[in-house]
Amino acid sequence: xxxxxxxxxxxxxxxxxxxxxxxxxxxxxxxxxxxxxxxxxxxxxxxxxxxxxxxxxxxxxxxxxxxxxxxxxxxxxxxxxxxxxxxxxxxxxxxxxxxxxxxxxxxxxxxxxxxxxxxxxxxxxxxxxxxxxxxxxxxxxxxxxxxxxxxxxxxxxxxxxxxxxxxxxxxxxxxxxxxxxxxxxxxxxxxxxxxxxxxxxxxxxxxxxxxxxxxxxxxxxxxxxxxxxxxxxxxxxxxxxxxxxxxxxxxxxxxxxxxxxxxxxxxxxxxxxxxxxxxxxxxxxxxxxxxxxxxxxxxxxxxxxxxxxxxxxxxxxxxxxxxxxxxxxxxxxxxxxxxxxxxxxxxxxxxxxxxxxxxxxxxxxxxxxxxxxxxxxxxxxxxxxxxxxxxxxxxxxxxxxxxxxxxxxxxxxxxxxxxxxxxxxxxxxxxxxxxxxxxxxxxxxxxxxxxxxxxxxxxxxxxxxxxxxxxxxxxxxxxxxxxxxxxxxxxxxxxxxxxxxxxxxxxxxxxxxxxxxxxxxxxxxxxxxxx
Length: 531
What we know:
By secondary structure, the protein is mainly α. The chain is built from 30 helices and no strands.
């Protein structure tokens, strides 16, 4: 029931409360009395029908006092002033709409809705029917809220008559929001009648969202064989993919051996990659021996390599000892490089102490360079105390240049190696030119004053032209004005024309006003003419 609009509300009891508050909390009372005075002033403007001044006063009130017991009054009467001033305009409609959204619990809400209905009719007569459509949607939402409340009340009764009433409403209404709510409620009924409807809805209803809701409701009854059989039937049907995936995930939340068997079969044999991967991840949620056995079977024999990778990641998410053993075997014994690399990264997601031991063992024992590089990256993503030292040793001493370079990249990802002298040590002592260049680029990516100073020293002292050029490029990637002077000096003094040319390009990459000025000076002075 709506409250009749009255512009100013007073009551002796309210005044006593205000007086008491003044006595007990003088600071708060001062703010409250200021708000009352400001509201009273705006209220008088409403009474005098001074709509423009009232709008200004009410807007100011809401800005100054956004959280008082007069805030919803002020917000409503601001819309009322707009309504009266503009004669049922779209602005007034939108104002009332915002009021309802912002103050849904206000006793003025029904008044605002009534005003919106009146304005929508006026606007429709004047060529704007879209406002009437918005009112229709608003009324539908109101009706849905009432109907849902009635549904829950019926569910709490739990008798056959209430269930029949709910099913009749499901058949009668075309409101899918309401029908989804009904489906969820059916999942709470311990009734064959309710289960029968839940088994048919996922295969026959016109709405995909309602069908999915029915599947999730079936998931609440997975202790019953008929419910599991029904989800298996959904999986084997040609219904919408989203509905079938919902059945997969619902099965994955059960402890049923039958669920594990069904999910494993779908993962291994389905020609639909999306469905097979969803079945695999659902298997990963089955924290049972049967689930582990099926997941291992998928890992061994699934048709699609991407599904087998998904099984590895699902094992990695389980994180138990059995999972680490299975993944390790794939990394060691696998005959597919991509699958071995996926196993390595899955190991990296396990407990750090276990995975560090296994990853280093893999690095030492495996022959394939790509898989060994993957182990270095996985090691670099962990924060073990001795990780930087291990990676530094590989970067300095490994005979395989590609592995040594991968160790540099992994080292730069560690909390200690990425901002320490370790990269400088690689730069000084590595036996591979490409590894030294990789270290240079990683130093340049730091962008710190220390890293720029290191690069400057390299340019000045290094005899290898390619290394000097790499240092120049690294400075160009620093985006720092501190590098401009170093590059300018290089352009002037370096004995190699290629290094000088690269320094010019590096200034262009920096692109700051200081770098631009340096390039202009080079042109003016003719410094680029040295041989």
